[in-house]
């Protein structure tokens, strides 16, 4: 038996402790989900909606407790995790609307009867969740997949099992039939057992490396639908405008959630002129004002620690590598040992003219590139194998039109942080950021497949329709 623990990254205190699910436990969960599938899929839609509404009521009841659990496990300030729980609650109405709009039933009259479009569930879905939004992101798969009639075996991140357990309690309160929603706790080997098992879909939010692994792993299992929501190396082009406002957009884009959002701006692209210089200075002085602290400190900090001391040490290695390649430290990256080994200081590195790897660094490090003109800015923005989010700060409509036309990313924002996203929109990326199955409003698309039918009440008319036949 292997034990799993999650720790408060700010204090090292144990938040959750339990057994990891081994391959045997995972396979019996999958077997239960398989048995539950036909009954759940056959329920009328409004019955599934009622269960999901009951889940929403359970979330509402536990709002503050759930925010606290997420904060303790991730170190995120309470203001942020309260917002995360609000997004989980909001997901229910959005998913019901999305399912009706994108995956409902349509009937067209035909001379013989009807053409009917239906959407059918895939079957048993494996859901693998990340640590950074351990409630909201797997919830963005779970709710639409259940509404569509799938059953689920969900493995939360090994760093956030308490959040996964709290979500499971809410689903239990929703009175789902046995086997419809199950949680298995564990790390890599539990995840491997899950994806090796009898599944019909893998709904994954996590790193691009794991996503690439799954693409290869499932190459010979084409019946398994893959929805891959992965990372990015996102550009923010800050071109003109009010320097203070622009600096706020940069800080929000790059440092919110201690840089642990998939949509964070990793690369700041500025003109090599007075605006660019003033902006970088303003970002630096705003970064100095960022309060770093524990999730329940008062006044509330802007950011907490990274997810673990190991993540902080790894980010330090990456920052040092950039500096060794020639990056200039406008504000250096530091592990704030005086606060605890997972706390870090956000960094601003000028990498103009430096050959830097096109990788995601999941930490508050923004790499600045100065460019001579807007063509060069666009080229720099698109010079990535990823394509999740991108942003432009500019009051110039013509530049925005070019940016929208030429940006290769799934989320492209103007005069708003790159992290700005709405559940009423699709959320997903191109290139190595995904596999063309965006989540959020479009999750309904990967949770069910379309089935087209020609339907006539009787067989009359078919014989008469045969042309080119010999007379009997
Ligand atoms: P991760 O890839 O390390 O892990 C995600 C989940 O997959 C975990 O539950 C983990 O146990 C499991 N897993 C990982 N490798 C596996 C394997 N080979 N077999 C089976 N299971 C495996 O990701 P993370 O560190 O938890 O999350 C951070 C990453 O997620 C960042 O790269 C971030 O950009 C990305 N992310 C993307 C989105 C999006 O919507 N595009 C949103 C949030 C986070």
Summarize the structure.
The chain is an alpha/beta fold and 472 residues long.
Descriptors:
472 residues, alpha/beta, Aldehyde Dehydrogenase, Chain A, domain 1, Aldehyde Dehydrogenase, Chain A, domain 2, 2 domains, seven-stranded mixed sheet, five-stranded parallel sheet, 14 helices, 40% helix, globular, binds nicotinamide-adenine-dinucleotide, Succinylglutamic semialdehyde dehydrogenase
Question: How would you describe the overall organization of this protein?
Answer:
Helix 9 links the parallel strand 10 and strand 11. This protein has 472 residues and is of the alpha/beta class. Helix 1 crosses helix 7. The strands form six sheets. The chain has a seven-stranded mixed β-sheet, with helices on both faces. A five-stranded parallel β-sheet has the order 7-6-5-8-9, sandwiched between helices. The protein has a three-stranded antiparallel β-sheet with strand order 3-4-21. It contains 14 helices and 21 strands. Helices cover 40% and strands 21% of the residues. The model has no long low-confidence stretch (mean pLDDT 97). The protein is globular. The site of nicotinamide-adenine-dinucleotide has 27 residues, from helix 7 and helix 8.
């Amino acid at each position: 038996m292997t034990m799993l623990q999650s720790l408060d990254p700010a204090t090292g205190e144990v938040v959750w402790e339990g057994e990891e699910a081994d391959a045997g436990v995972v396979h019996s969960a999958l077997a239960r989900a398989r048995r539950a599938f036909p009954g759940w899929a056959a329920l009328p839609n409004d019955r599934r909606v009622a269960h999901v509404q009951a889940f929403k009521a359970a979330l509402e009841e536990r709002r503050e407790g759930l925010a606290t659990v997420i904060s303790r496990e991730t170190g995120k300030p309470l203001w942020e995790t309260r917002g995360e729980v609000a997004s989980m609650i909001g997901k229910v109405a959005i998913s019901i609307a999305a399912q009706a709009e994108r995956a409902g039933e349509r009937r067209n009259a035909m001379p013989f009867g009807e053409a009917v479009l239906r959407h059918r569930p895939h079957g048993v879905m494996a859901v693998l969740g990340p640590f950074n939004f351990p409630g909201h992101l797997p919830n963005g798969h779970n709710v639409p997949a259940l509404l569509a009639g799938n059953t689920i075996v969900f493995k939360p991140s090994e760093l956030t099992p308490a959040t996964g357990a709290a979500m499971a309690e809410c689903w239990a309160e929703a009175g789902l039939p046995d086997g419809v929603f199950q949680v298995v706790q564990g790390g890599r080997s539990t995840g491997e057992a899950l994806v090796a098992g009898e599944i019909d879909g893998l709904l994954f939010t996590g790193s691009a490396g794991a996503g690439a692994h799954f693409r290869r792993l499932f190459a010979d299992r084409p019946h398994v639908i893959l929805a891959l929501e992965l990372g990015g190396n996102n550009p923010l082009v800050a071109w003109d405008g009010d320097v203070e406002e622009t600096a706020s957009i940069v800080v929000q884009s790059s440092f919110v959630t201690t840089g642990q959002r998939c949509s964070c701006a990793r690369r700041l692209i500025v003109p090599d002129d007075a605006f660019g210089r003033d902006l970088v200075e303003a970002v630096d002085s705003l970064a100095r004002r960022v309060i770093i602290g524990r999730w329940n400190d008062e006044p509330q900090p802007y950011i907490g620690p990274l997810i673990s001391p190991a993540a902080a040490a790894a980010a330090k290695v990456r920052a040092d590598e950039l500096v060794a390649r020639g990056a200039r430290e406008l504000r250096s990256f530091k592990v704030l040992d005086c606060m605890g080994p997972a706390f870090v200081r956000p960094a601003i590195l000028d990498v103009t003219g430096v050959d830097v790897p096109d990788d995601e660094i999941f930490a508050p490090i923004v790499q600045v590139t100065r460019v001579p003109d807007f063509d060069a800015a666009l080229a720099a923005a698109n010079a990535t194998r990823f394509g999740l989010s991108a942003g432009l700060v500019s009051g110039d409509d013509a530049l925005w039109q070019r940016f929208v036309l030429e940006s290769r990313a799934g989320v492209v924002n103007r005069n708003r942080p790159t992290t700005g996203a709405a559940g009423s929109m699709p959320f997903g990326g191109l290139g190595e950021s995904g596999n063309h199955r965006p989540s959020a409003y479009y999750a309904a698309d990967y949770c069910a497949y379309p089935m087209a039918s020609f339907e006539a009440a009787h067989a009359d008319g078919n014989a008469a329709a045969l042309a080119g036949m010999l007379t009997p």
